[in-house]
Hints:
Number of domains: 1
Order of helices and strands: EHEHEHEHHEEHHHE
Strand order of the largest sheet: 3-2-1-4-5-7-6
Oligomer: single chain
Distance between the termini: 17 Å
Strand content: 15-25%
Amino acid sequence: xxxxxxxxxxxxxxxxxxxxxxxxxxxxxxxxxxxxxxxxxxxxxxxxxxxxxxxxxxxxxxxxxxxxxxxxxxxxxxxxxxxxxxxxxxxxxxxxxxxxxxxxxxxxxxxxxxxxxxxxxxxxxxxxxxxxxxxxxxxxxxxxxxxxxxxxxxxxxxxxxxxxxxxxxxxxxxxxxxxxxxxxxxxxxxxxxxxxxxxxxxxxxxxxxxxxxxxxxxxxxxxxxxxxxxx
Length: 231
């Protein structure tokens, strides 16, 4: 696959999850010439312990933070689905939104969270991963699934690869040594989430990237489970 012609769709549960899980890889792929579209499933309206914050104000703040972070990563377009934080469900409507976006933007690669973890995992992460995988295969591919899209001029589309971050059984590691600082800069934009913790959180993320890179002989890496769609 020619990298310069590759289009990537990143489907993230909340603002900031993509930066944590795949920020270095996203920045690296952008540098290689790949086009990246970011789909943010929830508005993050529950993501605060500040007693002076409200669920009405928080989405506006997190939208702006996500736009700033996406600019640093080099993301070409950000799409907000604006489901409530903690409110994602595996429904035909949610799946249909993702199918529609896949058919509209026609990505070669889709990235999202790995829903199949043994340990505790935010429900929105599990649902995002499951619904995204279903949207990729078979729904976006099959003409008679969501036929209303055909009337809009959106033809079926077959995604070639899926990359899952947060996997307990990764099988591919990507060198992010040259883009790790971009990842951290983008993550730092999410001040409502990591602002007061970044002094400790940043080194922990770097330590994890160093550990991941050790097995590959590179300074810093991110790990994914890769699924190739063969049919």
